[in-house]
Amino acid sequence: MAQQEQKDKDHQMGLCLLCGLPAAGKTTVAQALSRSLRKCKGWQCVLLSYDDLIPVEAFSQTEDTLEPEAQQPLISRWRLHRHELLLYLEHFLQALIAGCHYYSPLPSRTETTWKSFVCSLKEQGLISTGKEDSASCQYLIDSPSLTPIYFILDDNFYYRSMRYEVYQLARRYTLGFCQLFLDCQVEVCMQRNSQRKCPLPEETICAMVQKMECPNPEKYAWERNSLILKSAEYSLADNFQVLDLLSTALEHPVKPLEENMEAKEMDRAICAASVLHQADQGIRRIVSQIMQNAKDYNLSPHEMKSFATELNKLKAAFLEDLRHKSNEKNQSCVQNNIFNVNVALLFSQQADVVVKKYLNKQ
């Protein structure tokens, strides 16, 4: 029994999310945290920065700059990369837990993201190239996994549902789970962003401010291991707090069969988000059809662009209002499905005002 307990202790693993606005200082904190864990705890630390792992073309355009019919493929591509990163991480965790010596590629993968992920593991000394030929490649797992390992995921994670996906991964494999949220002033983020080699558009950061869902341990028990750092600077005081948080999460990993009302509430919230996503798709089709019909009215390129801009703004405002109303009513999935029956009609009525503005004068 004592031998088994030691084995379980030797193979402790945890997932730590670093979330916050762009340029809030997440990467700086991640690097400092990695050094602290190695020096103070003797733990292994693996940094996974989404900005480095997801190919730049996934972020090259935003929803507002696209024609309606071109929006969905790009958005799906971005979500696909995020989803695949978690699959690659889970695949690697499975190999570590099983004590495998080799790490093989997943049959279904996006090559750019897969190569970035593998390169990151190689640079951090976890794997090296083993057997390789034109058909496949197996990577040798160099880490014996005899000491605790923390995987630090560095991303914005502005929606709670994004973070909950990682929590579910921790729950499947009895891993430690915790969150570090960097609460940095928007003005500071804007200033730092402007000094970057490839700065994000300011409107992107402003939009993220509106969407950001901070950890709420009082409402969601699965977020209990969370810490909000009021400063983007990694101070000595923060160091002690963070190390204590990570130690606590590692000593009390998430149980696979753990169920609580908060987790069920989160499941319902994700279900509601899925229903809202369906409403989003229906509205996109309406906008696309309206723009297609507008081509018969011989509008000038300037008028077409202005027409599309107004429709997209209306769509964004309509969906945001729909999301708030859904949250306020706290409806179940069935109720939301019933509620969405009238969404297309409601949006079409509002869109008619814009349509008449541009098409009735023809």
Q: Mean pLDDT, as a whole number?
A: 79
Computed structural class: alpha/beta
Please tell me the CATH architecture of the largest domain by its name: 3-Layer(aba) Sandwich
Helix-residue proportion: 55-70%
Under CATH, the homologous superfamily of the largest domain reads P-loop containing nucleotide triphosphate hydrolases
Query: Per the principal axes of the C-alpha atoms, what is the gross shape?
Result: elongated
Distance between the termini: 83 Å
**Beta-strand content bin:** 5-15%
* Order of helix and strand elements from N to C terminus: HEHEHHEHEEEHEHHEHHHHH
Number of helices: 13
Q: Tell me, what is the CATH class of the largest domain? A: Alpha Beta
How would you write the strand order of the largest sheet?
A: 2-6-1-7-8
Residue stretches low in confidence (pLDDT < 50, at least 5 long) are: 1-9, 61-75, 330-338
Predict the CATH topology of the largest domain. Answer: Rossmann fold
Radius of gyration equals 23 Å
Number of domains: 2
Main beta sheet strand tally, sense and closure: 5 strands, parallel
* Record field, number of beta strands: 8
Protein name: L-seryl-tRNA(Sec) kinase
Keywords: ATP-binding, Kinase, Nucleotide-binding, Transferase
GO molecular function, one term: tRNA binding
Pfam families: KTI12 (PF08433)
